[in-house]
Amino acid sequence: MAEIRSQSAAAMAVAASALKAQQGRMRIIAENIANANSTARTAGGDPYRRQVPVFRPARVEGAEGVAMARVEGDQKDFKTEYDPGNPAADAKGYVKLPNVDTLVEALDMKEAQRAYEANLNVIETARSMQSRTLDILKK
Fold this sequence. Notes:
- Belongs to the flagella basal body rod proteins family.
- Keywords: Bacterial flagellum, Cell projection, Cilium, Flagellum.
- By secondary structure, the protein is an alpha+beta fold.
- A two-stranded antiparallel ribbon has the order 1-2. The chain has a two-stranded antiparallel sheet with strand order 3-4.
- 50% of the residues lie in helices and 21% in strands.
- The protein has helices spanning 2-34, 102-138, and strands at 51-60, 63-73, 79-82, 94-97.
- It is elongated.
């Protein structure tokens, strides 16, 4: 019985680590969307840079889970728009806009939500299997 419990606990620990990682990913995506239209505070300055989560393998309860290692700035070029009246415009009248594509962010958010739901299903299935095993052993 200890082996069944440890395998089930390991499956739930792996899924829980993925839940935490996907939750962090969704937070970063929300920040990207919130800053998609922001500009620099100073003339010619850089606006918000899209953030990207970086994941790493993580040991959890004798199994391999996942954790967010760090958040990096996306090095893709900023978009520019001609708007000489904008306080953030450079000497030529161009304003740098964030390198955030809201369509990409929306798709990433949907993917993170689906991964989160899948890991919830893993936990629910592992709990159900534990319960069924206990029911069988009681008979």
